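Please supply some protein, with fold tokens.
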Amino acid sequence: MEAGIVGLPNVGKSTLFNALTASKAAQSANYPFCTIEPNEGVVSVPDPRLNRITKYIVPKKIVPAAIKLVDIAGIVKGASEGQGLGNKFLSHIREVDAIMQVVRCFDDPDVIHVTGSVNPVSDIETIEIELMLADMQTLEAALPKAERAAKSGDKEARLRADISKKCLEILHADQPLRKAAFDENEIKAVRSFGLMTAKPVLYVANVDENDLHGEGPLVQQVREYADKVGAAVVPVCAKLESEIAELDETDRQEMLESVGLEEPALAALARAAYRVLGLQSYFTAGEQEVRAWTIPIGATAPQAAGVIHTDFEKGFIRAEVYTLEDLETYKTEKEIRAAGKLRVEGKQYVMHDGDICHFLFNT
């Protein structure tokens, strides 16, 4: 699963991306379009439950969950009509599963804002409009073909034609598609178009070092906007986080304490992005490794087993499941089993976030 980092030029996208992926590469130049191809990186999702598990099951290795991030070059007003680098970068957004929009919430005369003034809500709306216009173009291009195919009795083409019209009506009403209600078949059709405003969004408020908790008026504006559209907001000082990311563990902790943070803001951001992607974790725990595995919310036990290996899903017999609370109460798996707390679950079991599992399967 991938999240694309988007935003206007000079809002701190690449600085944030470099910090998230612990890159020590030089920061991008202070002008638009410095990112000519999308950069990609894999980011660990900090999870304190891993450390809680390893108090009782001591492994040789700890493996956290991870998500893939794509740093997409700055979008400008008119991108849907080819302004800036235009549709080249809009196409990159179509390929990701969720959008992380970096919004500038700081003043700095040395960092030029592409519109000349800092207005986070206006920035959000500029990108939203460009994505809506691009989605309209996609649908308007696809509709005639679908309608022609539908005349021959093709049911799938009829669905595509109908959903195209429905989506166009929503977009012409100035509403992004992520707010619309679709049934299961419609959702599949919408996904097949790669429509950008149907993707979930997370707003990243890039703050200055005097407002690390995002309590200033600019971030409040973003929060108010996000509340209206049902999105989340995470305040991050990309400049500070990039400095923290380059330190070793001891120096990093000292710097965090000096600025009043318990953990890097990037940890909260990675977890928020994980949730926006509709993901959750389950764990396997043994002497070799304690590992967090990533699954979609709603995944069944066989689907979860298949993340480890496809043979596990094909030959799934049952899952043995217990909770972290069980482990903290009874200390060992042996005692959990003796207390009757080790559950045996079958193929219909829907996984819960934080389940600790063993899978039994035939090859």
